[in-house]
Amino acid sequence: MPSKIRPAGSLKTRITLFTLVIFMTSLWSLTFYASHMLREDMQRQLSDQQFSVVSFIARAIDAHLNERIKALETIANSIDPQAMEQPAALQHLLNSRPLLQTLFSGGVLITDSRGTAIAEVPPSLGRIGVNFMDRKAVAVALQEGHTQIGTPVLDKRLAVPVIGIAAPIRDATGRNLGTLAGVIALRKTGFLDELTQSAYGKTGSYFLVDRQERLIIASTKTERILQPLRPQGQIPAIDRFVNGFEGSQVYINPAGVEVLNSVKRLTAVDWGISASISAAEAFAPILAMQHRMVMAALLLTVLAGALTWWLLRRELSRLSDTAQTLAHMSSLAQTPQPLPVERHDEIGLLIQSFNHLLSGIAQQKSDLEKQLRLFSAFIDALPNPIFIKDTHTVFTACNRAYEEAFGIARADFIGKTVLDLDFLPPATREAFQAADRALMAQGGQTTEEIDLAFCDGVMRTVLYQRCTFDLVPGQDGGMLGLIVDISQRKQIEEALKVREAQYRLLAENAHDVIWTLDAQGHFTYVSPSVAKLRGYTSAEVMQQSLQEALMPEGVPVVLDALHKSQAAAKAGLPIPELRAELEQPCKDGSTVWTEVTTNGVQNADGEFLGLLGITRDISERKERDDYRHFHGRILEMLAGGTKLDPILQAIVLGIEALHPDKVCSILLLDDTGKRVARCIAPSLPDFYNTALHGLAVGMGMGSCGTAAFTGERVVVEDIATHPYWAPFKVLAAQAGLGACWSQPIRSGSHQILGAFGIYHRHKYHPSDADITLIEQAARLASISIEKTMAEEQIRNLAYRDSLTRLPNRRLLDDRLALALTSSRRTGLHGALMLLDLDNFKPLNDTHGHATGDLLLIEVARRLNASIREVDTVARLGGDEFVVVIGDLDADAPVALAQALAVAEKIRTALALPYLLTVAPEQGTPATTIEHHCSCSMGLTLFTGQDAQRQTEILKQADDAMYRAKQSGRNTIHL
């Protein structure tokens, strides 16, 4: 029987309490919200009223102060400046103005320009002769010349606090002669009575405050007069008032009482009016209202609780009766019957639902019995032996296949354990029983292969599977067993293992990589030879996707082959073969070029299973092809007449493209073969190349400098520790270089032209292939340099004078033609000068032709130094030279003046003494000869219109030159 429900845990009690909680929460929330809003509304209304009062008082005080200021200024302006020297006249003036004594309860006085009182009323106060410059009002009036209200002080004569107002007395020029000052006694004045004598509730009070001095001037609380306000920072509300705030606020005053305060500033002076009243007095009606609302809320809470309890008890009585009926029915061993429905409300609906549930349970019971019969028929139809045991390892069921396999009727072993089966050996029975108990203890399932004797006496290999189950979680369950004869399958598997071992032996010892790919593009097998090819193990590659196993450009190729193979297999067509060259990444970060061949794989039904592929390393073949292509491109550049620097740069960049892990450079020596003239290394930093320019080669000058000096290959595996690199260790580290090997570049005559260097970013030992590479690169650079030098030599022989390196007659004709073409295009003049050396033949006759050659070389140098780079100097032969100047002025006289200036510069330069050092013969010292030689020069102008008569231009210059010689030499003739 169910236990009786306690009142505290009954549904009525919980619903009542829940309803009360909701009601009380809503009611009290409304109460507190209403009281809060009432307080805010009253505070806003009281604040407005209080601020109106202080504003009225502030205007009244402003009016009184302005009245007194105006009175003082009016009288001060009427005082005759002459009267300032007559104290009696001033005293008479004050006595005749009784209004001043009415307005100023503390008396009126007149001071001179030094602030000393010279007249006063009433005279009994004894202020005459006293200096008042220490009072702010008098000091400001005299010094700044305007009316000033002073700071409240305690007057010793009146024994009361006073305020002074002083107005300046001026002469016609505006000079301050003195002041007219009025004193207001704060406890005797009339205009502050509204402030000091007005009651403000029981706890309220008014204050007149000097904001700058933080001083109370007047108050309804007399004990606060002339009392300072709290210091800055103690009470923020007071600080706001002092800083200029106007309005109302609630704060805690210095006495610790919450007050409602309103402040208003005066306009006549920097004072303020403050009114304060305690919050308790101001909000007393609100507190009373809140008390009444709380009492009403308590009363409504009690009433709501009682009504809820009564209503629930009445409405839930039928539900309680139904529960008791159900409890009684559950104790009877009979099928539950539907309950009667007395009223169609929520409780009636609940009883109807319960009756429907009873009907459903009965139907489920019938269905379950059908399922059990179906399950029994199902397991009997299965060909494999099946058994069921309970939690105590006792047989509870089996199928027909189990009976036939072991030759025992189920009725003979149901209710027994395996220990009771006589057809099994005792050791086997004990092993089975121990395994069953262990499985029931830990739960789960087991699968094992065992040898088991069937009733025909044949020992078979079976797959013995067992699985525990729970009928009721944690309470009832058992174990389901399945025995599958796998003897025939085991024989097939053994045969397959032998064949697989044969195939695996073949695949694992093949040089090429053999692999299979399923229809989804996943690796299912990779032969171990992949470790030699890419550095990855078979297991690592089988975890890779195609995107990881191939470079990006190779992925679409394999995927396309996979899709085409799938489509061909689906259409019943032959699967196409793929043969492609693909680049694959290696584990060390490098790449390898491979040739990939694939064929489709299908099962017996023609279903596409995937691809079988063979990957072959073609790196060496690819490298040879790439090098042949690179070598051919360089030869094409040489054959096409490309200049040397682009060819050498192409060699460097080509080697780097073939070997991305390396950085190359070519160092070319100068004509002496002792210094670096140029450095072709586009992949090295600029600062590194700049540091090598002009560097002297020698032992220990890096790899390239040493190789160029010794003529032998230099290999440095670790730049950081090798002595050859000691002077450049920091430079190499900044450039990120770790190793360097260098090969000297030799000409066909074994002259050292430079050095070819290969750098590695890390410490590195070059292989035989690396050495072969640098030898080939240096040989290719040598061919390029020698061919370019030969072409340059041929070009110089054809177009240059062999002694002076100046253009010869052939090149002069080209340059003159260009100058004429430019003149025709621009309209500017050009000039041609033909000059012949004076006194040249005696030098040849006296010192020989070698000395004459030295003079001609020096003349060529001086001529080049005297003209622009765009102009031309040529040697016609012997001691005759030609100078072509272009881009002169379009106006002929101006162009002639420009040409004559250049000619004069040349004549002067050639007329300077020549110091010629003659090379010694064997056994004799070198000698220096000083020679004086001038020139005779013929000059002619030309324009583009003369383009068809170059010969005539030269002839004109030649005629002019001969006339220059005839006129006395060392001259210029036009």
TrEMBL record:
Origin: domain of life: Bacteria
Membrane topology term: Multi-pass membrane protein
UniProt keyword Transmembrane, yes or no: yes
Residue span, PAC domain: 576-630
UniProt keyword annotations, A-Z: Cell membrane, Membrane, Nucleotidyltransferase, Transferase, Transmembrane, Transmembrane helix
Primary location: membrane
PROSITE patterns per record: GGDEF, HAMP, PAC, PAS
Uppermost EC category: transferase
Entry's EC annotation: 2.7.7.65
GO molecular function, one term: diguanylate cyclase activity
Segments passing through the bilayer: 15-34, 293-312
Domain HAMP stretches: 313-366
CDD domains found in the cross-reference section: GGDEF, HAMP, PAS, PDC1_DGC_like, PDC2_HK_sensor
Pfam family, one: HAMP
PAS domain: residues covered: 371-443, 499-569
Domain GGDEF: 828-974
Record localization: Cell membrane
NCBIfam families per the UniProt record, alphabetical: GGDEF, sensory_box
PANTHER family recorded: DIGUANYLATE CYCLASE DGCT-RELATED, SLL0267 PROTEIN
Name of the featured protein: Diguanylate cyclase domain-containing protein
Naturally occurring in which organism (per UniProt): Giesbergeria sinuosa
